[in-house]
From TrEMBL:
Organism listed in the record: Candidatus Borkfalkia avicola
Keyword Transmembrane carried by entry: yes
Pfam families, per the entry: ABC2_membrane_5
Name of this chain's protein: ABC-2 transporter permease
Coiled-coil regions, chain positions: none
């Protein structure tokens, strides 16, 4: 498993500086504007973009066929992709928590963190299933549609929960629901992808 995760990490090294620069820019913008929503959307984007970039490299190199021929089980192959996505999300969540502390450890900031953490899990859940089902290239347009849909829904929900005309719900009610649904979707997605790969002809 560690070898598979290291391979995923190696796949993104050529673009790692770009990810760091992009993260730093939006981290700074969020601090200056005192608006964590900007960085929240970056977290969602990275939860999708980084794992898919790694999987695209594997697909181009024929790594999946090589790994399976080397004795790696299909379940372990799928699980490694989900673990890598989870590590990416955990890192972005850690930065989000640091951002919360820097801009003010308010309840609203941590509610935003909870919401975008759940949104990241949900977005990754949908996208990873599509990639395992159709491959990166065939699923590329669907990935864009899913990403845009998640962004639009996210904008709508954040304006309802945290905007000037927000509804009178308990602050952590909807973020907690989104976070729980995100974890459930991630678990289901991993199971479904495992079933897909079990029947897939590599």
């Amino acid at each position: 498993m560690r070898g598979l995760l290291l391979k995923s990490w190696k796949n993104i090294l050529p673009t790692f500086a770009y990810y760091c620069f992009f993260t730093a820019v939006f981290f700074a913008v969020s601090i200056i504007a005192k608006e964590l929503i900007y960085f929240g959307f970056v977290c969602v984007m990275f939860s999708v973009a980084v794992p898919v970039a790694s999987m695209a490299r594997d697909e181009r190199d024929g790594w999946d066929k090589f790994a399976l021929a080397s004795g790696v089980t299909r379940q372990k192959f799928v699980l490694s992709g989900y673990l890598f996505a989870l590590f990416v999300m955990l890192f972005s969540w850690l930065l989000f928590i640091v951002l919360c502390a820097v801009t003010g450890a308010t309840a609203e900031n941590f509610a935003l963190f909870l919401f975008f953490a759940g949104a990241s899990l949900f977005a990754a859940s949908v996208v990873l299933v599509l990639v395992h089902k159709f491959g990166v290239e065939k699923a590329r347009i669907l990935l864009i549609v899913v990403f845009v849909a998640v962004m639009l829904v996210g904008v709508g929900i954040t304006s309802v929960l945290f905007g000037e005309d927000r509804v009178s719900l308990p602050l952590f009610a909807m973020p907690a629901v989104v976070f729980a649904v995100g974890w459930a979707a991630f678990a289901v997605s991993c199971f479904v992808s495992g079933r897909i790969c079990a029947k897939k002809d590599y």
